[in-house]
Design goal:
Structural class: alpha+beta
Number of helices: 2
Helix content: 10-25%
Strand order of the largest sheet: 3-4-5-6
Radius of gyration: 48 Å
Strand content: 15-25%
Number of domains: 4
Shape: rod-shaped
Order of helices and strands: HEEEEEEEEHEEEEE
Distance between the termini: 59 Å
Number of strands: 13
Length: 247
């Protein structure tokens, strides 16, 4: 009876000694001996529900912020928000490389992605290449457009039909009175026809026309254009567009 008691006490003492001296240096994991004498690893992480973050977290601790209703995990350096994503989710980011299951919509060949991402891309109906969002903005369907349809244009060249319905007209003034002198050989005219005195047969002379010269002209006005296209971009901020396909 006494021997049994002493043996049980020895096991208890050994267990406590192992617990005390086998604590991991990062205070996250400890070694314990179970009732069968097997050494087991036990995490001592905590879950904190508060409006402020714990002051001395260890890696793997969870904090639920009661102000924002957001859960975060301490990764050893910062509190990293726990966010769940669905396959096919889209996000904008200032990151420029693929990360954490997010892949750039830049026309990349789907065959070059990890196998999990390839499988998930197929479930979305994607094949060949990822959609290319280069120089594009995202919009909601107008009802007749299918998901991943593309459209629009970056520049526009106006046609005549795009111009306002305006008639351009013009005219000159009628202040155009003037005369012209016509050379005439007097041999071909009678002296009477030439006005009588002062004309010598066989000579040349000039006869003035009437000074009545009022007239008008039709004027064509050109636009002066050169059919140059113009940009349709509004002021913008460049970011990267990613799709979530999992890891």
């Amino acid at each position: 009876m006494l021997k049994s008691f002493n043996t049980q006490n020895i096991y208890t003492i050994i267990s406590w000694v192992l617990i005390i001296f086998s604590i991991n240096t990062n205070a996250q994991e400890v070694k314990v001996v179970d009732n069968k004498g097997t050494i087991q690893s036990v995490n001592n992480n905590t879950v904190t529900t508060a409006s402020t973050a714990p002051t001395s977290p260890v890696e793997g601790d969870v904090w639920f912020d009661t102000t924002t209703n957001i859960a975060s995990v301490w990764n050893g350096t910062i509190w990293k928000t726990i966010i769940t994503h669905s396959i096919g989710d889209i996000k904008h980011s200032i990151q420029t490389t693929n990360h954490d299951g997010w892949y750039k919509l830049d026309g990349t060949a789907i065959s070059s992605l990890p196998s999990v991402a390839q499988t998930n891309a197929a479930t979305l109906g994607l094949s060949g290449n990822l959609p290319d969002a280069t120089d594009r903005v995202l919009k909601y369907s107008n009802g007749s457009e299918a998901i991943l349809d593309t459209g629009g244009q970056a520049t526009t060249t106006l046609s005549q039909a795009n111009l306002p319905n305006v008639n351009f007209t013009g005219s000159t003034s009628t202040d155009g009175n003037h005369t012209h002198n016509v050379d005439v050989n007097t041999d071909n005219f009678s002296l009477l026809a030439l006005g009588g005195d002062g004309y010598t047969p066989g000579s040349s002379t000039q006869i003035p026309t009437s000074a009545s010269g009022d007239h008008s002209h039709t004027v064509s006005v050109t636009s002066g254009g050169s059919d140059q296209a113009f940009d349709r971009y509004q002021p913008f901020l460049v970011v990267t567009i990613f799709i979530y396909l999992g890891e």
